[in-house]
Amino acid sequence: MKNQIVQERMLIGGEWVKAKEEMDVFDPGTGELIATVPSASVEDVKEAIKKAKDGAEKSATLSVHERMNILHKAASYIEANKTSFVNTIIAESSKTIREARKEVIRCIETLRLSAEEARRIDGQTIPFSQMPGHETRVGYVYRFPVGIVAAITPFNDPLNLVAHKVGPAIAAGNAVIVKPASLTPLSALRLAEAFLHAGLPANILSVITGRGSNICDPLVEHDDVRFVSFTGGYETGKEITKKVGVKKTGMELGSNSPTIILKDANVEEAISSTVSGAFGVAGQNCIGVQRIYVEYPLYQTFLTRFVKETKKLKVGTKSEETTDIGPMISEKEAKRVESWIAEAKKLGASICCGGERKKAYVEPTVLTNVPTQATIATQEVFGPVVLIEPVDSLQEAIEQSNDSGYGLQAGIFTEKLETAFQAIHELQFGGVMINDSSDVRIDGMPFGGIKGSGIGREGVRYAIEAMTEQKVVAFKLQK
């Protein structure tokens, strides 16, 4: 029996509205049509911005305890309706039921962190008397909201990465317009419902669904939008930075993250961590392990055991508890990954396991001897593929890791403290994880990279800082 197709509406200000056109939303695992959503027009974007101007004024006047209360209530609503949120993620995305549960838990944590950080938006005093002639002045700095935040979110974490933009925006006293990924818009709409149930005043939040090619430019280019937060691919992010003009931006643009395994590493922990880090969410993870460099004395042992553990992973139906890996987000993306694997093989790479595709499902794949000119060696694969290569030394591993246009996160396994500190200082990444793979993140930490991996940092406290401006105040005291 087929599921009933749900006709969704989008949120503009505090109202659920339709559009002249609709878009279909499919389950990537079955190809089944599960919902339709409005395909917003440029006029819809203009209306959302118009309402957000009013919403920004309202949000800025909310007391800190009111913002905190709304955020806590939204988190509690999600917690009370956890099963519904989990099922939405499973239906529209690549995530298995276990992965979806984790995302919902993280979303709740993100909103509660946002509430707590709202009370810590503070400033500092300035000793004006440090300069001759300013002895009678006292001053301070405080933070105020930027106004309207435009948030463009990806498909791989369709709930929590939306929360990472909406939560801090509201905590800081802004209005926010969310443009969720076209392939996974439903979780963002459910999150909007949570905020309405929490009593968020009208016009502070909008979620506009539609094709990015139609609505992203008029959203990010509008003069009233003062901060653009984008998570997605490098090329799209690069184009956005050309269009936004003189305004603040936050960009998280992905990576092809490395993990280094030295000869003194704990092999069991290294294998467990890197297998999980390489293949979670079918490899569609910006900090997922794509490259592994193993010191020669340990290389063959590591490779053999890594392949053995990879072959144990179950590819299958997302809703089954025993499934480890679900589909990629679309058959088109699965075909792309398949073609990258084929190119690497043609250039001389060896396929140790996997490499096969069936519709949107790609087997977890381990490659070795991958030439540096192969696309999969230099670009972000965003699929269940990992490259494992031997190195002679830590220095070679660091050089190979840094030989990339990206720099989001890296991992290293070693028992030597001095070796770890060398890696920390020499690896050119926004984060270095010791005795862990690159795939480590908590929602309270600063998250972002260098080079092609982006601009600025996410993580609740750090997003709030980005979504506020500093104002300097000086008092001249009368003698």
Notes on the protein architecture:
It is a single chain. By secondary structure, the chain is an alpha/beta fold. The chain folds into 2 domains: 6-254 and 453-472, 3-Layer(aba) Sandwich (Aldehyde Dehydrogenase, Chain A, domain 1), CATH 3.40.605; 258-443, Aldehyde Dehydrogenase, Chain A, domain 2. Helix content is 39%, strand content 22%. The protein is built from 15 helices and 23 strands. The strands form 6 sheets. The chain has a 7-stranded mixed beta sheet, with helices on both faces. Helix 9 (267-279) crosses helix 10. The chain starts with 5 loop residues before the first strand and ends with a strand. The model has no long low-confidence stretch (mean pLDDT 97).
Strand order of the largest sheet: 15-18-19-14-13-20-21
Global structural class:
alpha/beta
Full CATH superfamily name of the largest domain: Aldehyde Dehydrogenase, Chain A, domain 1
Query: What's the tally of helices?
Result: 15
Give the total of domains: 2
